[in-house]
From TrEMBL:
This is Sulfite oxidase. InterPro entries: Ig_E-set (IPR014756), MoCF_OxRdtse_dimer (IPR005066), Mopterin_OxRdtase_euk (IPR008335), OxRdtase_Mopterin-bd_dom (IPR000572), OxRdtase_Mopterin-bd_sf (IPR036374). Keywords: Metal-binding, Molybdenum, Oxidoreductase. Coiled coil: none annotated. One of its GO terms (molecular function) is sulfite oxidase activity. Transmembrane segments: none annotated. One of its GO terms (biological process) is sulfur compound metabolic process.
Length: 366
């Protein structure tokens, strides 16, 4: 694809889904656009190119409608005239890690490993500043975003996504830049809703309409897709999603991933284990621990802080590894005491969302 590193793993061609291998991800504090993963449910909007170049779209507008005193249509140029905010944030697909559910039973969807994951800097205008002009009514409890992309089959439901307004109002952005450049077309340029701390699906690309409503949408992007059961379900079983027995993929689970060594790598003696950790930004990550003996003992890694609560924490630790086939494990904990389960079976769900079990990498020690 135009502008993307040929080393990306193709998970799907139409719509495009590309995964970043960990070997590329670990090289950068901020993920550059040429290696950033792509998850499209539909194509790019009509008239746009599948490229990392920004679109020519100075005429772009976004509507603010629904439970507001004054519906608005804002031009991109007007948004760029408002005070801007810049923010580092992890963008992760809610299906990241889905392939690991196969240790128990395969979950349906693209078989992502660790790399539907990026850490980038967004620049844009605060949602709160945009909504101020519209006057949001107190009954408006949800924000539903629509993008200009369309389903391949016109009969199929279009992508749209709701988030709880009060929870996101202080942090959400309408972004027009990524990593200091105009937003690439394939990542939602010229304008994207950014909901820091939330899973990828909530960050609607090519955003052209914001609806303020009393209830969340019941579109197929909200139910049955992009949801998890409220209570654990038996591994491999079917599940009928209702509004009461499940919840949307909103705030990200606390998670550490190992970026080095890579799965299957041959190493010797003492190794440096490196990775990144993050959560939903509501509390700092307080520790990452690594085990090389199946969790009998754990060693603390040193952490680097991101520039915003929503960025990732790079971590590293030197550990001894016994000769033979062995596993390196890693888990993060945050200030609210939230951590990661050793056994991912309790996370199992038919669509394979929100995987955050202890990360386990098999290596060969010679
Ligand atoms: N947006 C729109 N408009 N469409 C689509 O499809 N997807 C999702 C988000 N947004 C979409 C949107 C998803 S799902 C994800 S992850 C993200 O996006 C991705 O991003 P990038 O930029 O990387 O491609 Mo899963 O949870």
């Amino acid at each position: 694809m135009a502008g993307k590193d040929p080393g990306l793993i193709v998970r799907n061609t139409n719509p495009v889904e590309l995964e970043t291998p960990v070997a590329l991800l670990r090289e950068h504090r901020y993920t550059p656009k040429n290696i950033m993963y792509i998850r499209n449910n539909q194509g790019v909007p009509p008239g746009m190119q599948l490229t990392t170049e920004p679109p020519r779209a100075e005429e772009w507008t976004v509507e603010v409608v629904g439970l507001v005193d004054k519906p608005l249509t804002l031009r991109l140029s007007e948004l760029k005239g408002l005070p801007a905010t810049e923010l580092e944030m992890v963008l992760q697909c809610s299906g990241n890690g889905r392939s690991f559910f196969s240790r128990y039973a395969r979950a349906s969807g693209a078989q992502w490993e660790r790399g539907s994951l990026a850490n980038v800097r967004w620049k844009g205008v605060k949602l709160s500043a945009v909504l101020e002009g519209a006057g949001v009514k107190p009954e408006a409890l949800f924000l539903t975003a629509e993008g200009a992309d369309q389903p391949a089959n016109p009969q199929a439901p279009d992508i749209e996504r709701s988030v709880p307004l009060r929870d996101v109002l202080a942090s959400a952005l309408l972004a027009y830049e990524m990593n200091g450049e105009p937003l690439p077309t394939v990542h939602g340029g010229p304008l994207r809703l950014i909901v820091p701390g939330y899973y990828g699906i909530n960050n609607i690309k090519w955003v052209n309409r914001l609806r303020l409503e009393a209830a969340a949408s019941t579109n197929n992007t909200m139910i049955p897709r992009y949801r998890v059961p409220l209570a654990p379900v038996p591994v491999g079983s079917a599940f009928t999603f209702t509004l009461d027995n499940s919840r949307p993929n909103w705030r990200q689970n606390v998670k550490a991933v190992i970026l080095s060594p890579a799965e299957g790598q041959s190493v010797s003696g003492i190794i440096e284990v490196r990775g990144v950790a993050w959560n939903d930004g509501s509390a700092p990550i307080t520790g990452v621990e690594v085990s090389t003996n199946q969790g009998r003992s754990w060693q603390s890694a040193s952490l680097e802080k991101p520039s915003s609560p929503y960025g990732w924490y790079p971590w590293r630790v030197r550990v001894m590894v016994a000769t033979g086939d062995t596993e390196v494990w890693a888990r993060a904990t945050d200030a609210l005491g939230r951590s990661q389960p050793v056994d991912g079976a309790i996370l199992w769900n038919p669509n394979g969302y929100e995987w955050n079990a202890v990360d386990k990498v098999k290596i060969k020690v010679g």
